[in-house]
Every structure is written in structure tokens, then in C-alpha cells.
């Protein structure tokens, strides 16, 4: 379920929905864009939390890690890069297209910007063994300290930079990186010290809603004070929204049977999420003309929502078909 939520966030982040707040006098459209832009920041952290929950306790040698995981991502990255490079040749001609040009763009993430996640994920896998050893001594007290450092790094320091234009030079290492979300994902999934299981669903929901509202208010105040929006502001409360969303999904899905229709549906869609992410750019290109027509005949809220929905469903369809191919299924 968290995978599904995360990929919808990713798709929305790649649409014009994240830009409507710039030029609109319509309150509904502004709120839609502002709320969506804030929420979609959860997509990548949620994916890394899933990786933490699934991988940090894996007992694998470095050799197994390279063979089973790193090798798989390299093959996927190479394959999807070739696909999009070939698509660009067909669409644009690309007179300078060559093997050397492809290799250069492949090494510098110059084929599709959205593929940066795979490069980051590949780097994370390479240093995974170090963090697998590190979590053995992490307890509830350290998790609270980690969250405190993350709040300082993600909320306190950016706010000072936005409001006072002072950049605080403080490097907190992995606290400012996605590895932090991996550790949080591992801990929240297990909750060995029973810190979060006592947290009521309504309180978690309240924290999530309050974080969204406060972040919107902060963005509005920043605009009024500075006359422009600051993109740093969109990530301010992600560190609160992401764990809250994780815990809410965990509480809700704990009551869903994996053998029931709902459980099977969630599992089947969730298993296709990686494919949906890989094909997101292709699906958005396919439906771009429909989106533009909807923009002309409706309002941005309707057009963008329909665009996100149809891209998700198209990616799901393609992913389901590809996963029926034995060789492809091993990778996506």
C-alpha cells in the first residue's frame, strides 16, 4: 500500500500540478497545487523507508548483494535508459546519437532526470552492509535522537535560510540523506521498543493533517514576506508527514487479510509499482495531448487529477503485461 501511495506521489510530482500555485487567483486550484506539491515530497522517502524495512536485516554477503541486488538495478537502469534513448531517436531524430553519446548520458543521468532515483538507490545498495551492521545497536532512544536531528536539519536550518538568508554550515552526514529514512522504515516496521504501537490512529491522523496545514501556512507566509515562493519550504515538514503516513497505513492494513479480495488487489498493484515508476515518463508522453485538451476545456484541478489517474492505470497495465514475461519479471 505504501508503494502505491509513493508512486502516485512521484507521478504527481512530474506533472504541472506542482506549478499551478504560481499563477492562479483561484483558491481551490491554489490549495490543490500547494497541498499536492507538499504531499508528493513523501514519495521518495517512502520508497527508501520500504527498502530499510526489507533490506536492513537481510543476512547477505557482499557477493550476494552485488549478484542479487546491485546487478539487478544496473540491468534495469541500462535497459530503461536504452528504451528512452531509442524513443528520443525516433521522436527527435538526434543527429548526434551514438554509442559514445549514450554512454556519456548514461553515466551522467542525462537521458531522463527522473531516473536519478535508480542512481541514488544503486549507491545506497553499495553502502548497505555498513548500515546493516550499524542498526544492531540502535534502540528507541537513538531513534528519538535521530528524529530530533532530522527535525533540526530539515525544519530548523531551512527556515533560518529562507527567512534570514543565512546558510548554516553543518554537515550531519546520513541524517540529511535518504539513509535516515531507511533506518526509520526499519524501526517503524519492527517497533521493537513498542514506542509507536501505543499511538492512536486519530492522533497520527491529526499529526499528519496538522503538518500539511502548517506547511501550507508557512509557504503562504513566506510568499507574503518575500514576494516569491521558496522551494525549500515544500520539504519542511516531510520528516513528520512521512512517518505518520507509514504508521497510518500500517494500522489500516493490519486489519486487511492478504487472502481477501482487498488484500490481493493491494498486493497485485503493489507488485507492479516499480514498473509504473520506470514507465512513468513514457505514459505521461502518451497522454500529454489528452491532458492539454482537458486543460483547455476544464480547470487545472480536473485535468491534472485525470492525468495522474490515467498515467497510473496505463503504467499498471503495461507493468502487469511485462511481469508476465519470465525474464522481465526477474527485474521489475
TrEMBL record:
Compartments, as annotated in UniProt: Cell membrane
Keyword DNA damage in annotation: no
Entry keyword Thylakoid: no
UniProtKB keywords: Acyltransferase, Cell membrane, Membrane, Transferase, Transmembrane, Transmembrane helix
Main location class: membrane
Domain Acyltransferase: 2-279
MF terms in GO: acyltransferase activity
Record-annotated membrane-spanning stretches: 33-57, 69-87, 114-131, 166-184, 205-223, 229-249, 261-279, 299-322
Signal peptide: none
Membrane topology classification: Multi-pass membrane protein
Family: Belongs to the acyltransferase 3 family.
Protein name as annotated: Acyltransferase
Record lineage: Bacteria, Bacillati, Bacillota, Clostridia, Lachnospirales
Amino acid at each position: 500500500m505504501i508503494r502505491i501511495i509513493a508512486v502516485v506521489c512521484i507521478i504527481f510530482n512530474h506533472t504541472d500540478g506542482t506549478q499551478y500555485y504560481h499563477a492562479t487567483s483561484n483558491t481551490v486550484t491554489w490549495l490543490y497545487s500547494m497541498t499536492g506539491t507538499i504531499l508528493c515530497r513523501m514519495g521518495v522517502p517512502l520508497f527508501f523507508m520500504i527498502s530499510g524495512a526489507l533490506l536492513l536485516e537481510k543476512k547477505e554477503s557482499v557477493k550476494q548483494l552485488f549478484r542479487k541486488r546491485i546487478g539487478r538495478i544496473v540491468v534495469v537502469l541500462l535497459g530503461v535508459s536504452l528504451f528512452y534513448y531509442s524513443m528520443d531517436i525516433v521522436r527527435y531524430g538526434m543527429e548526434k546519437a551514438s554509442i559514445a553519446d549514450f554512454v556519456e548520458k548514461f553515466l551522467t543521468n542525462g537521458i531522463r532526470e527522473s531516473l536519478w532515483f535508480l542512481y541514488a538507490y544503486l549507491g545506497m545498495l553499495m553502502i548497505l552492509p555498513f548500515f546493516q551492521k550499524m542498526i544492531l545497536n540502535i534502540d528507541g532512544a537513538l531513534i528519538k535522537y535521530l528524529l530530533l536531528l532530522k527535525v533540526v536539519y530539515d525544519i530548523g536550518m531551512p527556515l533560518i535560510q529562507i527567512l534570514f538568508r543565512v546558510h548554516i554550515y553543518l554537515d550531519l552526514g546520513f541524517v540529511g540523506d535518504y539513509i535516515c529514512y531507511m533506518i526509520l522504515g526499519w524501526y517503524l516496521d519492527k517497533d521493537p521498543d513498542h514506542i509507536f504501537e501505543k499511538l492512536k490512529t486519530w492522533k497520527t491522523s491529526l499529526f499528519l493533517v496538522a503538518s500539511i496545514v502548517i506547511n501550507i501556512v508557512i509557504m503562504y507566509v513566506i510568499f507574503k514576506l518575500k514576494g516569491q515562493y521558496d522551494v525549500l519550504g515544500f520539504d519542511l515538514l516531510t520528516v513528520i508527514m512521512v512517518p505518520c503516513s507509514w504508521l497510518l497505513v500500517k494500522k489500516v492494513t493490519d486489519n486487511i487479510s492478504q487472502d481477501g479480495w482487498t488484500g490481493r488487489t493491494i498486493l497485485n498493484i503493489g507488485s507492479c509499482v516499480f514498473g509504473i515508476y520506470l514507465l512513468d515518463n513514457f505514459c505521461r508522453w502518451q497522454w500529454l495531448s489528452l491532458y492539454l485538451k482537458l486543460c483547455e476545456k476544464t480547470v487545472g484541478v480536473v485535468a491534472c487529477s485525470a492525468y495522474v489517474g490515467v498515467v497510473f492505470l496505463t503504467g499498471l497495465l503495461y507493468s502487469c503485461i511485462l511481469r508476465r514475461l519470465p525474464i522481465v519479471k526477474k527485474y521489475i
